Amino acid sequence: MTMRHEQVETNSALMLLLILAVISVGGLVEIVPLFSINETIEKVEGVRPNTPLEIRGRDIYIREGCYLCHSQMIRPFRDEWLRYGHYSLAAESQYDHPFQWGSKRTGPDLARVGGKYSNQWHVQHMKAPRSVVPQSIMPNYPWLLTNDLDYSDVADRMRALRVTGVPYSLTQQEYDANVKRFGPTVADQLDISKAEDNLLKEARDKNFDGIPGRVTEMDALVAYLQSLGTMVDFTKYDEGYFATFR
Amino acid sequence: MSDNKLNAAQQSGAVQTTGHAWDGDLQEYNNPLPRWWLWCFYGTVVFSVLYWFIYPSWPVGQTWLKGFGKVDYTIVDKKTNKVEEREQRWNTRALLLADLGEAANNEQRKAMLSKVRAASHDQIVKDPKMMEFVRSVGKGLFGDNCAACHGRGGQGVVGMYPNLSDDDWLWGGSMDKIHETLVQGRKGFMPAFEGVLKPEQLDDVAEYALVLSNEAKPSEASERGKEIFQGQIGGCYYCHGADAKGVPSQGAANLTDKIWTIANVPAQKTLQDKKAVLKTLIANGVNNTRIMPAWKGRLNDDDIKLLAVYVQQLGGAK
Fold first, then answer.
1. How does residue B21 score in pLDDT terms, banded at 50, 70 and 90?
2. Which range is least confidently modeled, A41-45, B78-82, B278-282?
3. Which distant-in-sequence residues (6+ apart) come within 8 Å of A45 by Cβ?
C-alpha cells in the first residue's frame, strides 16, 4: 500500500491520468447516457432548424454577448411558468449549436420572447432600451440598424451546422427527407443552395427593422428573437405528457 | 502549531505516522478520524443507496432506474375539460404540475376565479371583492406582459404605444373590444399621402387637423384642408369619420380631442413645429409600426379576462 502510494505521488504523468479518470466519472454517468436514452428529447411537432436569416441573427446574438445577461431556458418552477410561459423542452434546442441555456439572468429569460412584442418594439428597444423600459440597464445597440448584414458566408455556416447534425440539405435526397419531415415550405428554407435567396426574401418580405430596401443586422437579430419559443404549439398537448419524459 | 510543540500522545509515540518520509526526516501523523464523523460518513453511504431506489438515478441501456417515488397532481384534462387526479413518477416536471394544481386548488383563489369567470363585466366592476382580486392578479400579468410597451402604469409612449391610463381608446374601450384587442392583437394602418397629396395640400390638411383639436384657429388654409379631408382627394373621413371623432373598428384616432398617440403635438412649442410633425405623419402614414401582438395561446382565457378588466379600469372605464 505504502509503496503504490509513493509510485503515484512521484510520477506526475501517472497521477495526471488517474486524476482525469476519476473526474470524468461524473460526466460519463450524467451526460453520456443521454445520447442513448430514448426519452431525452421529447417527441413534439413543429421544431425546425433556423432559417438562414435566423442563423445570422443568432450569430449576432452571440457576437454581441446577449447570452451574458439573457438565458434561454425556462425552468419547471411556478414563478417562471407564470412569468415566461411553458418551461423549455430539450426538443426546442435540439438544433442549437451551441445551446443558449444558462442561469445568468441579469436580463429576463428569452426562451419564449418570440411574438411577445412587435418588431418595432424590438428595434426601438435595441436602439435605446430605456426609451421603452425606463428601469432597464441594457446597453444601447444602435449599430445594429446602421450595419448592413453580411450574409456572404451564410451557406458555409449552414454547411458547418450540417456537420453537427442539423438537417440542412445539400443533396436532392436530403431535401426530399426534409420535405417529408418538415413540409415543403420549411424544407425550402433548409436548402443550402438557396440560402442567400431565402435570407434576402425573408428580410425583404417581413422587413423586421422597418427600413425598406435594406437588410441590416437588426433584421437578422429581430427575425431570430421573434422565432424563439414559438415552434411548439403547447395547446395541442396534454400537460402531463411532458412529465413522462423525465 | 507554528512552534511545532508536540502533545503528550504524539511525544510518547502513541500516534502512528503515515510512513512517508520527505527530505530525510519530514513525517506525517496519521490521526484517526473522529468516530462521530466516521459514522455520519457511513450513514450517507447507506442513504445514497436508498436514494437510488427512491429517485431517478442510474442509466441502464436506453432507459434509466426511474425510482419508486411518486408525485400526485390534479389537472384539468384538455379534451374532457374535467379535473383529474393523476399520479406520475417523481420528477421536477411532475412537481411543477403538483404545484400548479395546488395553486389552482387554493380555495380562495378558486372561488374568486370561478366567480370572475361567471360574472359579466358590470358585475365584476360593481363588486369590490372581485375588483380587489382583478387588481392584484392583473398587476402581475400587466407587469409581465404589457408593461414593456405600455409602461408600468399603462402611460404608453407617444409615437409608439397607446396610453392606456386615459379613457381614449383607438380600438374601442368597451370590455368586449378590449378583450378582442387582447385576444387577436391589432395592426394600426394609415396610408401614406406623400405623392397622393401635393406638399402644400399636406400643409393644409395638417392645419385642419390642428383646428379640429383647437390647437389653431380656422383659416383659409384649414378650409382647404377640410375640403381635402372631407373630399375624394384625401378621403380622410373614410377612417376618421366625417365628424373626425375616429372610428374604433378601423383603429382610427379621434382627431377632435387633445390626445395624440402618434404625432407628438403637445411636445412641440410653436404652431409651426406642431404642423411639421403632423405633416410628416400624414406624408409617411402608418404601416407595420403600430402592432399589438395577439395574446391568445400565450395567456389563458382567465388571464385575458382579468387583464381586460384591469386595463379598462386603468383608463377609468366608460
1. confident
2. B78-82
3. A232, A233, A236
For residue A117, list chain B residues with Cβ-Cβ distance below 8 A. Answer: 148-149, 293
Range A30-44 average pLDDT: 90
Q: Which three cell numbers stand for residue B42?
A: 457511513
Cell of A93: 434546442
Report the residue from B78, B157, B298 with minimal CB separation from A85. B298
pLDDT at B30 (0 to 100): 84
* ipTM (interface predicted TM): 0.88
The answer, yes or no, to whether residue B78 has pLDDT greater than 60, is: yes
Contacts of B56 (CB under 8 A, 6+ apart): A246, B64, B65, B66, B67, B89, B90, B91
Domain A52-245 classification at class level: mainly alpha
Of the candidates A132, A130, A113, which has an alpha carbon nearest to the alpha carbon of residue A121? A132
**What are the φ/ψ torsions at residue B123 (nearest 5 degrees)?**
-60, -40
- Contact at CB, B157 and A242, closer than 8 angstroms: no
Judging contacts by C-beta atoms under 8 Å, the chain A residues touching residue B91 are 243, 246
Grid cell 428529447 is found at A41
Cβ within 8 Å of residue A80, ≥6 positions away: A74, A87, A109
* Extents of the domains making up chain A: 2-36, 52-245
Residue B296 is given by DSSP the state B
Q: Using alpha carbons only, give the angle A80, A83, A89 rounded to the nearest 5 degrees.
A: 50
Report whether A31 contacts A90 (CB < 8 A). no
* Tens digits of residue pLDDT in A86-131: 999 999 999 999 999 998 899 999 999 999 999 999 999 999 999 9
Query: If you average pLDDT over every residue of chain B, what do you get?
Result: 89
- Over range A157-172, report the average pLDDT: 96
Q: Torsions phi, psi of A47, nearest 5?
A: -75, 125
